[in-house]
Amino acid sequence: MKRSFAAAVVFSVYTFVILAAGFWMGRTGWPLVELGVPVAVAPPEAEEQFAPFWEVWNLVNARYVNQPLDPDTLTEGAINGMLNTLDDPHTRYLPPAQEEAARENMEGEFSGIGVLVEMVDDQITIVSPFEGSPAEAAGLNPGDVLLEADGVSLEDASLSDAADLIRGPAGTTVHLVVSRNGEIFEVDVERDVIRIPSVRGEMLEANIAYVRLNRFANLTAEEMEETLAGLMAQNPDGLILDVRNNPGGGLQPAITVADQFLPEGVILVERFGGGREELYESTDEGMAENIPMVVLMNEGSASAAEVLAGALRDRERATLIGTTTFGKGTVQTWHPLSNGGGVRITVARWLTPNGVWLHEDGLEPDIRVAPLDAEEAQAHPLAPSDDEAAEDAQLRAAIEFLKE
Fold this sequence. Notes:
- There is one protein chain.
- The protein is α/β, with parallel strands linked by helices.
- The protein is about 25% helix and about 25% strand.
- It has helices at about 45-50, 50-65, 70-85, 95-105, 135, 160-165, 220-230, 250-260, 305-315, 375-380, 385-390, 395-404; strands at about 20, 30-35, 90-95, 110, 115-120, 125-130, 145-150, 150-155, 175-180, 185-190, 190-195, 200-205, 210-215, 240, 265-270, 275-280, 295, 320, 330-335, 340-350, 365-370.
- Strands 2, 3, 15, 16, 19 and 20 form a 6-stranded mixed beta sheet that branches.
- Helix 7 (about 220-230) links the parallel strand 13 (about 210-215) and strand 14.
- Residues about 1-30 and about 375-390 have low confidence and may be disordered.
């Protein structure tokens, strides 16, 4: 099916403001996650080390002026305090409600304003609004700093506190105070619920296939296979893979998706703390291994999206067009806890096939094309004649590159 050159909005709304140091990025993205196994038994050697903790626990419960105290709050505060000593924004605790929401996100159903935020320079900062989300419709952009939510200051708030303030049922509204490049403005964002896939595809002009990949969730690999099967059956002359504002997600879906575009070889390297390395490799069974290909990316492309783009670049399989990606180069395991909460633990760095660790630096495009508004795009050498197409200069550049 033909469509206009402007990339259509099709994606998701997240159950809560997904926060993280990677699911979720301090300059980071959704964590590149692997499922972990819960550990419920305390080691015997910890008894002596934790004696001071229980001494303080008993003291505050017996002596603190404002009684009674909430044991859940004390417990979660202790967990957060321990993880904060690691100075890793990707290693973090999720209270039960956020853990449940995060797992629902991986299933493809989200409720909230649809924005990924992270702590950057001690500020709650938007990494990317998700396509089709209320946050995108309200005009929130990557780099915006959230100052207040419903009259409550976020200046000293943790990511978890910000999530609790901004999340909420569909149909309700949150009032945000936002800073953008030093300018302060206010916006009301109505929360919503949307169920949509993570992959969409269609044919563009000049017999070019277009695939939009929004995130890496549980069903992404299957959705990609189905989408590519339909597109490749039409014998396209080129393919555009769009991972702009893709915050990442699961490691295995990223590997499986990459395998569709790459011949046999390395996709990424995991490097663990002791120096041990594990290779993830592609087979020779992908459906789109030889077609001329462009990847569209931007500062909202993070984590697993960078794994995919980095592998395609290093293997000289695709040309990267757009702007520098977010820069998340670590892998987290995902552990459920007995209280219904969960913890994300950074266990490894990931490197591109050429051994590049792009953490915080991001992935540089082969052809840099900034997003232009319609007026600016008309003066761009690749700008089309109609205003709608001109609004997406990056997509237009990809089309022209493949046509040439």
